[in-house]
Write a structure and sequence with these properties.
XPG-I domain-containing protein, XPG/Rad2, Rossmann fold, 11% strand, 5'-flap endonuclease activity, two-stranded antiparallel sheet
């Protein structure tokens, strides 16, 4: 998802860790002394999680039990709870772009949204609605230091300026950092270079430039043209000003393509590419907080605040009535759920996480991280 071919380009810059290794290294020094007073803070694109779960069960699953998509989300939450990390789930907001991959975006939140938030809260995780796209909000929060990393499969997060990305495969994570992408000789992509990859190779906002693959774009990025475009888009006031800049900039692209031996691509390069609106959608997305204007202190403090620990009683209640985890009979009060067998099922899923988090010795009271 995200920018076509980008994961393939940046693979050499990845550093592989186990989940536990990454989290424990954040908390403790090699000699066992405490390194940080807070757990590793991860920001997650909730909309992507919901989309993946719904995509997995597009076809009939009548014999698989109640609320299969929600149950899959629950198991993913339980897996994440068993790692020593504080988690912030970001949901797409009302100002997200109306078009994605050339198709109109459904503006109504997925049916899973409310239930997802209920389960996340029961696990002690935090939720937040973005102003627009979740990936852009996550990038801003990463830059502000609210979260230590973004956990995503969508490479757009890098284009928006995320400093650190975890690309997860359940048992391990591939860690990408802004410094790593720029310093790895076989990658050498700055934020401007990432923007160029998104525009030319195609992404959520545009299909990209025809007959221009990621290899050609990667070479172009080494000439700094992406950084020039990023600077112009950051400093210009509107689309008209950016359009004025794009004239000579496109001429420079033509010259570079000719020198690279891509004469056909140079000759057919569209005069109206890239679209100023698409460039600004990447460079100036709708977000709640920015480094220049972090927003009301109270709102930022709410995002920095550690939530209390897991609410096992509430979690058991949700599992019983959303998944049918009971021995039959009419609904019973929450305090009677233990006799239904639900807590027994939860034991194998979350008690490991309870022990791990207690061993980390991090207070689960309400605190503001400073």
């Amino acid at each position: 998802m995200g920018v076509t071919g980008l994961w393939q380009v940046i693979t050499p810059a990845a550093k592989k860790y186990s989940l536990q290794e990454l989290m424990v290294n954040h908390m403790f020094n090699p000699d066992g002394t405490k390194h940080s007073e807070h757990l590793f803070r991860i920001g997650v694109d909730a909309s992507l999680w919901m989309a993946n779960c719904q995509h997995s069960f597009r076809h009939g699953h009548a014999q698989c039990g109640q609320n299969l998509e929600l149950r899959m989300l629950f198991y993913k939450l339980a897996h994440l709870y068993c790692t020593p990390a504080d988690v912030l789930f970001i949901f797409d907001g009302p100002q997200k772009p109306a078009i994605k991959w050339g198709k109109k975006v459904v503006t109504i939140p997925p049916w899973l949204t409310t239930y997802f938030k209920d389960f996340a809260s029961a696990f002690g995780f935090q939720t937040h609605e973005a102003a627009g796209k979740a990936e852009a909000e996550l990038a801003a929060l990463n830059q502000l230091g609210v979260i230590d990393a973004v956990w995503t499969e969508d490479s757009d997060a890098l284009v928006f300026g995320t400093l650190t990305v975890d690309n997860n495969n359940d048992k391990s994570v591939l860690m990408y950092s802004a410094n790593g992408l720029a310093q790895e000789s076989t990658v050498a992509l700055t934020k401007g270079g990432l923007l160029l990859m998104a525009l030319f190779c195609g992404g959520d906002y545009d299909n990209g430039l025809s007959h221009c693959g990621w290899k050609t774009t990667h070479v172009l990025a080494q000439h700094g043209v992406g950084d020039e475009l990023l600077h112009a888009a950051t400093t210009t006031a509107n689309e008209d000003d950016l359009t004025t800049f794009l004239g000579p900039w496109v001429k420079h692209i033509h010259d570079l393509l000719t020198k690279m031996g891509c004469k056909k691509l140079s000759a057919t390069f569209p005069t109206d590419f890239p679209s100023p609106a698409v460039v600004l959608a990447y460079v100036k997305p709708s977000i709640t907080f920015t480094c220049a204007d972090p927003g009301p202190p109270q709102a930022l403090s709410m995002l920095l605040r550690m939530l209390q620990g897991i609410d096992l009683e509430q979690l058991a209640f949700l599992c019983k009535f959303r998944f049918g985890w009971s021995r039959g009979g009419p609904p019973v009060p929450v305090h009677a759920i233990e006799s239904s067998g639900t807590l027994g099922k939860l034991k194998n899923l979350v008690y490991e996480g309870v022990c791990i988090r207690n061993l980390c010795g991090v207070s689960r009271l309400y605190h503001v991280i400073v």
